[in-house]
Amino acid sequence: MRPTAPVRIFTAAAAVHTLAGPDGPRSGAAMAELGTIPHGAVVVDDTGAIAWVGATSDLPASFADAEIIDCTGKTLMPAFVDAHTHLVWGGDRKDELEMRIAGADYERIFATGGGILSSVRQTRAIDDDTLYAQSLVRIERMRRAGTTTFEIKSGYGLELAAELRQLRVARRLGADFRVRTTCLAAHAVPAEARVSAAARAAFIESICAEILPAVARANLADFADVFCDRGAFDVDESRRVLLAARALGLGLRVHANELGATGGAQLAAELGAASADHLLYVGDAERTALREAGVVAILLPGTSLVLGKPYADGRAMVEAGVPVAVATDCNPGSCAFENLAMVLALACYGNRLSPAEAVCAATHNAACSLGLGDRVGSLKPGRRADLLVLDTPDVRDLVYHAGSPLVGQVWQDGLRVA
Ligand SMILES: [Zn+2]
User: Fold this and answer.
1) How far is the CA of 329 from the centre of ligand 1 (A)?
2) What angle do CA 110, 116, 121 make, to 5 degrees?
3) Mind listing the pLDDT tens digit of every residue in the chain (418 residues)?
4) Do 252 and 271 meet the contact criterion of CB atoms below 8 Å apart?
5) How many domains does the chain fold into?
6) Shared-domain flag, residues 45 and 166
7) Which domain does 228 fall in, by range?
8) I want to staple 391 with a disulfide (CB 3.0 to 4.6 A). Which of 209, 265, 404, 408 is the partner?
């Protein structure tokens, strides 16, 4: 290993929220402990890793040659980690906006040919380069808003070639962004499989026997996910898909309990999934199961806002000791939000997390749900230097002044990217 040298010192910040603490997802009171250093400094080395974190007054003299970035009056924190996105899709569904605002619900829009199947048609119709170009616009906006790590799901192909194409594009984005990919072939039953029970069964069989093995062979996914809910896949179908994925070495994530109490959260716990996501309709039994299985609960309050649905009870989740993360769910229909800082604020107003808990949820806990807790989501020596300089001395302004452009600088691997 070559010796590393300090190249950059972020100094004199009003506060550095390190999120230093135990490895692994945090729960309960620990979610609000941000490892804050007042008047802090962060030193980055020439490999793009963090070399030192501490009080500005304790900066070692040996770092004197490094470039100084004066953070007086500002806040340093880990860059955001968006642990649930569908950001690779073709076209758009802006035509559904008026319907939705006029009161049509998700399931009704879906029944009239809109919804996921509309995005499937638009995504299948374009080639790799067009899909990449459209997705790049979105991910660049997301990074400008402070996110450097992204989970990206497929699920607008729903057949082998188009699922592979979505995941190839996601991997290609991974050359410039920190990306973990998820095969969500079980996102919806495609139109051609809705004609009979046999066609539906054949589609699920094709996911297990054809799509997931091809995805794993080409190393295109880190995780598999299933939309286990009303109108999508039931618990038995979901279990089948997830077991097939697990046998191929993929991690597991579950879209669970968004539309009803349909058993998705319990299934995520039964299979020890990395995350259960949405979780609007859960009670004590589900919360206990998630906690005991160590599943990260990923809340997606932007989707609740757009769809006019209730918010998941994040407060009860924290009090039950379930580790909580927050993500955008960025997707073409139910929430095309790209700004995770804005969604962090919604997690406070909607899911009733405290601002500190929401910061942990959008950084360290999100990273842990992706298996990246030892690389990003906290500011500790050895971690990647993915960090934000906020133009405020108080991190709570992300909530108090929600939506304001407070993310002044975005750094990824020690390089300024926005
Ligand atoms: Zn989703």
Assistant:
1) 5
2) 110
3) 455 777 999 999 999 999 999 999 999 999 999 999 999 999 999 999 999 999 999 999 888 789 999 999 999 999 999 999 999 999 999 988 888 888 887 777 877 777 888 999 999 999 999 999 999 999 999 999 999 999 999 999 999 999 999 999 999 999 999 999 999 999 999 989 999 999 999 999 999 999 999 999 999 999 999 999 998 999 999 999 999 999 999 999 999 999 999 999 999 999 999 999 999 999 999 999 999 999 999 999 999 999 889 999 999 999 999 999 999 999 999 899 999 999 999 999 999 999 999 999 999 999 999 999 999 999 999 999 999 999 999 999 999 999 999 999 999 999 999 9
4) yes
5) 2
6) no
7) 81-369
8) 408
Burial class (CB in 10 A: 0-12, 13-18, 19+), 105: middle
Q: What is the pTM of this model?
A: 0.97
**Residue 249, phi then psi, degrees to nearest 5:** 90, 10
CATH number at residue 135: 3.20.20.140
**Residue 308 CA, ligand 1 centroid: distance in Å:** 16
Q: Mark whether 52 and 121 lie in a shared domain.
A: no
Report how far residue 266's alpha carbon sits from residue 282's, in angstroms, rounded to the nearest whole number.
10
Distance 226 CA to ligand 1 centre (A): 9
